[in-house]
Amino acid sequence: MFNRKPIEERIAERVAKRPPLKEGKHFEHKPALIVFLIVIGLVVVKFIGAFLLMKLGVH
Length: 59
Fold this sequence. Notes:
Elements: H1 7-17, H2 30-56
């Protein structure tokens, strides 16, 4: 339809154009690192809050 390649082929071509990842690097771009750190931070804060509530005896 409309002489366009399927989305899978277009994505594959775009991924193939990217340079290879550097050795020891886990995130390709900063936004991925920022989102990962925010999620980990929220999990840590939630656990600390739960332990504080248990310590204080709040139900």
